[in-house]
Amino acid sequence: MMSNAERNSAGKADDAEITLGILNAIHENERFTQRTVAQDLGIALGLANSYLKRCVKKGLVKVSQAPANRYVYYLTPQGFSEKSRLTAEYLSDSFRFFRDARSQCAEALREAGRRGWTRIALFGASELAEVASLCEAPGVEIVAVIDPARNRSNLAHLPVVDTIEDAGEIDGLVLTILANPQAAYDSLLLDYPRNRVIVLDLLRVSKPPHDGAHS
Length: 215
Description:
Number of domains: 2
Strand content: 15-25%
CATH class of the largest domain: Alpha Beta
Mean pLDDT: 86
CATH superfamily of the largest domain: NAD(P)-binding Rossmann-like Domain
Helix content: 40-55%
CATH topology of the largest domain: Rossmann fold
CATH architecture of the largest domain: 3-Layer(aba) Sandwich
Number of helices: 7
Order of helices and strands: HHHHEEHEHEEEEHE
């Protein structure tokens, strides 16, 4: 049974994503270690162990003992089949995310135009920001990406800066952070007007009363 810490760690990665990550790791290297796959997937070591045991129990993975008390893992035919199924599912979800994200980002830029904004910034350097950077709306320019935890200097063709002030003169923001967007939004509103922030529906952020669909 998973501990509370392991459940919290699982929340950072989808169940199917963890399983696929383990199956891929075994397929690429039969002598893989649980510690390495846990680091690669960003989950607790105990959680990686729990998922590996589950894969063995389901008949997706077989394990044999090697010299020096090491273990060799390999995929069963059922494991290969499940890896193919999960890969197709993952790609389908990825394409669905891209389609929805691009549609909503394009609408967010059009909404900015309807509000009379000409210069906007994206808040959060993420895959969502990359999608938004591909979108256009007449008279609206994305001038920067704001990310307080900045670990890169640019995203696509846009500069990444630490603060709203560093973005220069802007009319508003589009929230594009994927890591805990609710907390980021709540924190942002402590210092920035909520009517200057556009939030995409796919982020599932709860907004204060009387906010419009994108405000």
